[in-house]
Amino acid sequence: MSLIKWSPFFFEPFDGMEKTFEEMNALMPRGQGNIVPPIDMYETKDAVVVETPLAGVDPSKVEISIENGMLTIKGTMERKTEVEDKNYYRKEMRSGSIFRQVALPARVEEGKAEASCDNGILKILMPKVEPKKPIKVEVKKK
Fold first, then answer.
1. pLDDT (mean) for 1-30
2. Contact, 46 vs 130, CB < 8 A?
3. Would you say 69 and 104 are in contact if contact means Cβ atoms under 8 Å apart?
4. Phi and psi, residue 93, nearest 5°
5. How much is the pLDDT for 7?
């Protein structure tokens, strides 16, 4: 008797769905303490702005990259203050990696992005690419 892997998605329209979810999960960082911070994204006349809370994260340990219309925020947060003579009832301070990736709503000038951190809020300002103006071509008579 041979074993057949059971899959809850046995209808034809869902054949590739399970594999897709597995592939997507493989791209996410693994391990305990992975944090996906919430973001606020808005557009001004000249820029796309992203804000995210990163309380307890050293700004020097945050890596921001913009490539092909995708913004990626990576970083680590650590809590090094451990007190051994305390009898904890609850310990919820986190440490681990931070990862967030989001598609941008407009084309931006990747090399001119700026980031700042104020009171635990990371703010990324990305200037928008000016739309190209149409070029007029005259038709010459012969």
1. 60
2. no
3. yes
4. -70, 130
5. 61
* Chain centroid to CA 99: 6
Structure tokens at 6: 């059971």
Architecture of domain 33-83+93-127: Sandwich (2.60)
pLDDT higher than threshold 80 for residue 64: yes
The DSSP element (H or E) to which 98 belongs, if any, is: strand 96-103
Long-range contacts from 60-65, C-beta under 8 angstroms, 24+ separation: 62/98, 62/115, 62/117, 62/122, 64/113, 64/115, 64/124
Which amino acid is located at 133 in the chain?
Answer: K
Residues 6+ apart with CB under 8 A from 62: 54, 73, 74, 75, 98, 115, 117, 122
What residue has token string 């609850």?
Answer: 90
- Domain ranges within the chain, ordered by starting residue: 33-83+93-127
Q: Which residues of 75-101 are buried (b: 16+ CB within 10 A; e: fewer)?
A: bebeeeeeeeeeeeeeeeeeebbbbbe
Do residues 35 and 97 lie in contact, with contact meaning Cβ atoms separated by under 8 Å? yes
